[in-house]
Design goal:
The chain is an alpha/beta fold and about 350 residues long. It contains ten helices and 19 strands.
């Protein structure tokens, strides 16, 4: 089968690799349909690492995907040959202390698609996944929408960590796909006013079109001052979705005493800092988002019902052999890209 792998910093190669084969009763052989390019994929592409996770070439990346079931093990019951599915990219052991507590996303033995040292990614014609990672989508949902389920589920999980948001004023710093997924989920929680920021004006515009009452570019204005003028008591909850130190600083300044900072962004550097006087005096709660936990099916239900409509995030489409062009576009924020989708199979 054909596989696209990272072969160096900002380099990709098309490889011929062995077809996977069903070996275990719970195996599901999947033909990959659509793959979304995630910011974490771009970290591996552009820098060769995320923190202590270092790429060893060749490395296949990609974890946001939809697929068609081609073959199943004899114990599989939840999906059938021909089904279109959304893929949970994390394989948890269901045995460790974290899994026993229902924290499958922090499983001590987890293996994640496209993560160095764990599993090859989904930029291949076929992959093998266990039945528990395969979620059938309704016939009315297309393959591209099914590939969006994974980032949408991260936004859902992030919002769940914030608690009751009804009537609370919210900030979302960074409105790429994860920030926009947070925005869509926040709107379902009947929050108060939602303020967003991004260093790219087109993303500010998109955020306002999809529910933000105000959106500003921190490179061209003092966003803390502007939001404080509109909300003198400041904000209840802020979702940091861009992985930038200056956004973390802005969040601390924008939060009211007793506020919550939910960190969903992945920083480029392995260390960040906080002004301790401010977070101590305000008694700010800081929480980190680790992917998602048990949100794939709820996300499918919301998208299929039309209550949550993330399809606008897909702005660009690429064929499989043009995958590197997709990665370059996302890495360089070209042509007002939000989400680029690579079509592996039809």
């Amino acid at each position: 089968m054909k596989t696209i792998a990272l072969s160096g910093i900002r380099r990709m190669s098309m490889l011929e690799t062995p077809d996977p084969a069903v070996r275990h009763p719970s195996d599901v052989l999947l033909q990959i349909l659509s793959v979304g390019v995630c910011g974490s994929d771009v970290h591996y592409y552009s820098r060769g690492r995320i923190g202590d996770q270092i790429v060893h070439y060749p490395q296949t990346v990609g974890h946001e995907c939809s697929a068609r079931v081609v073959e199943t093990g004899n114990a599989v019951t939840r999906v059938s040959v021909g089904d279109i599915i959304a893929v949970e990219p994390c394989i948890s052991c269901h045995e460790c202390d974290q899994c026993r507590q229902g924290r499958f996303h922090t499983c001590r033995n987890q293996r994640f698609l496209g993560c160095p040292g764990e599993l090859p990614g989904c930029l291949s014609e076929y992959i093998m996944m266990p039945e528990k990672c395969c979620y059938k989508v309704p016939e009315t949902m297309d393959a591209d929408s099914a590939a969006l389920i994974e980032p949408v589920s991260i936004g859902m999980h992030a919002v769940s960590l914030a608690g009751d948001l009804k009537g609370r004023n919210i900030g979302i710093l960074g409105t790429g796909p994860i920030g926009l997924s947070v925005l869509l989920n926040v709107r379902l929680e009947h929050a108060g006013s939602v303020y967003t920021t991004d260093k790219r004006d087109f993303r500010c515009r998109i955020a306002k079109e999809h529910g933000a009452v105000w959106s500003g570019n921190p490179d061209t204005m003092d966003v803390v001052q502007r939001i404080a003028e509109m909300e003198p008591l400041l904000l209840d909850v802020i979702f940091e979705c861009c992985g930038q130190q200056d956004a973390l600083d802005q969040a601390v300044n924008l939060l009211k005493p007793g506020g919550k900072l939910i960190i969903a962004g992945i920083p480029e550097k392995n260390h960040v800092s906080f002004e301790m006087n401010k977070i101590r005096r305000k008694e700010i709660t800081i929480m980190n988002v680790r992917r998602q936990n048990e949100c794939i099916q709820p996300a499918i239900d919301l998208v299929s019902s039309g209550k949550l409509q993330p399809q606008f995030m897909i702005t660009h489409h690429f064929q499989f052999d043009n995958a590197q062009k997709a990665f370059d576009m996302v890495a360089e924020y070209r042509d007002n890209v939000i989400k680029a989708v690579i079509h592996v199979s039809k």
